[in-house]
UniProtKB/TrEMBL annotation:
Record keyword Transcription present: yes
Protein transport is among the record's keywords: no
A Pfam family per the record: zf-HC2
All copies of domain Putative zinc-finger, residue ranges: 28-56
Protein name, entry field: Mycothiol system anti-sigma-R factor
Alphabetical keyword list: Transcription, Transcription regulation
Amino acid sequence: MSTEERLSEEAPPASKGCCEESRRQNLRRLYDYLDGELGQAEIAEIKAHLQECSPCESELSIESMLKDLVRRSCSESAPASLRERIRERIVIETSDTGRL
């Protein structure tokens, strides 16, 4: 089970206006948001959603803290072979979910 799937299952109940399916989609977009992979329009859309949806706002806070913790803890570079295996696994995982 991917981290994304686990987080979706463990997420608190959706607030009004954020059904479970849109919540999963928004969680995927939160990862992209945290990674700086969205355009200005999508960033504005996510910010507006976060103002309306406290469960998604909580997820963003948790994921942001986790990302910062990992960044601070990982001062060494992974070997090139490990990085390549991780990239390959990401491709497999995203292909399985229909998202490329």
